[in-house]
Amino acid sequence: MEASNHRPTKMVIDRQALRHNFLQEKHSLKPETKLFAVLKADAYSHGVLAVAQVLHEVHVDGFCVATLDEALQIRQAGFPETILVLGVTPVSQANLASQNDISLAVSSCDWLRQVGSQLTTSLKVHLALDTGMGRIGLRTRTEVLEACQLLQADSQLIPEGIFTHFATANEPDTHYLEQQIQSFQELTADLPLKFEYRHCANSATALWHSKWQFDMVRFGIALYGLNPSNEVIKEVPYQLQPVLSLETEIVYIKQMTAGQKISYGATYTAQENEIIATLPFGYADGWLRRMTGSSVLVEGQLCPIVGDICMDQMMIKVPQLYPLGTKVTIIGENNGHRLSATDAAHYAGTGNYEIVCNLTDRISKKYVN
Ligand SMILES: *Cc1c(COP(=O)(O)O)cnc(C)c1O
């Protein structure tokens, strides 16, 4: 989708905050641990190529993405870093990956058996291990040993990594996490083959269990300044600076009288003389209808969204007749008050990950600093 650049709704992406989060994490790791930035889903909606450029300038060690297409986009833009596809790539696409020097996660021995004959150049692979996430990966020691044999038997396959993913690293209760760590250690102990990177740490593990950084960290949500526990765990080893703000302007404003109604379904009724402002921002931009009733900031004051959120517009109740063009903050700071993606997530009964990923590329992006 083309961004609507002629509409006053925009994401403001603070490059300095991105650098800050990255460098704080970098400095908290052992000097030999590699720091990979997770750029899947258009860098959690922050704009993948712009984010990659900032991180390239501060010497990121590599990038992780979800799909081969996301990897190709970064590679074709000219970035030289290692790029790892975390999801399952069809065997039929493995050669395309190898030709573009893209590393692939491998989650079955069958995949390794089938891929060998198709490669025209060598392919870097990371064995995915399922230690309790129940998503993708080898599940037993027997399978891991078999995969090692298959890798040893094919010189086109480069054993670049072996990894797992945690289901509960962002929760205060570490019981299940400890089980997964133990299983990862058992599955990777004394293998007949040396993998360059053994890795298991997402943002939550990196922040709260950095002992388990192994050879590399896959740093996603915290890179964007968001707390992976949605602030259930408030203590963080360094300040996370939110990278994304979301702003718009009042484009229409009116005085309503008691009994007049607002939006589809006419479910909201003005109880008295109310001032209602209209914003050029709606669910097609990713602010889902379940956000009705939550607040945005106008001149530092919380103003509730009233009536159903429309596809492209929404209405808010404001305390006075502001001039058209008055700034409205949906995520970010406004006159000393702040609303975060995590606040929105709490309202919607979800996580900050989903709030930012939902933002669509109809919203124009402005990069600052
Ligand atoms: C998305 C993802 C990450 C990044 O997780 P964050 O919680 O955003 O840091 C790391 N590893 C894998 C396998 C992932 O799918």
TrEMBL record:
Annotated residues for binding of substrate? R135, M311
Which pathway? Amino-acid biosynthesis; D-alanine biosynthesis; D-alanine from L-alanine: step 1/1
Reaction catalysis annotation: L-alanine = D-alanine
Q: Which Gene Ontology terms describe the biological processes this protein takes part in?
A: D-alanine biosynthetic process; peptidoglycan biosynthetic process
Domain Alanine racemase C-terminal as annotated: residue spans: 243-368
Q: Name one GO molecular function term.
A: alanine racemase activity
Keywords, sorted A to Z: Isomerase, Pyridoxal phosphate
Q: Where is the active site?
A: K40 (proton acceptor), Y264 (proton acceptor)
Name the Enzyme Commission number(s) assigned to this protein: 5.1.1.1
Residues with N6-(pyridoxal phosphate)lysine modification: K40
Question: What domain of life?
Answer: Bacteria
Q: Does the keyword Isomerase apply?
A: yes
- Which cofactors are required for activity? pyridoxal 5'-phosphate
Question: GO cellular-component terms in the record?
Answer: cytosol
The record's annotation in SUPFAM superfamilies points to: Alanine racemase C-terminal domain-like, PLP-binding barrel
Task: Identify the InterPro entries for this entry.
Answer: Ala_racemase (IPR000821), Ala_racemase/Decarboxylase_C (IPR009006), Ala_racemase_C (IPR011079), Ala_racemase_N (IPR001608), PLP-binding_barrel (IPR029066)
Gene3D superfamilies in the record, alphabetically? Alanine racemase (3.20.20.10), Lyase, Ornithine Decarboxylase, Chain A, domain 1 (2.40.37.10)
Protein family according to the UniProt entry: Belongs to the alanine racemase family.
Q: What does this protein do?
A: Catalyzes the interconversion of L-alanine and D-alanine. May also act on other amino acids.
Write the protein's name.
Alanine racemase
What are the leading ranks of the lineage?
Bacteria, Bacillati, Bacillota, Bacilli, Lactobacillales
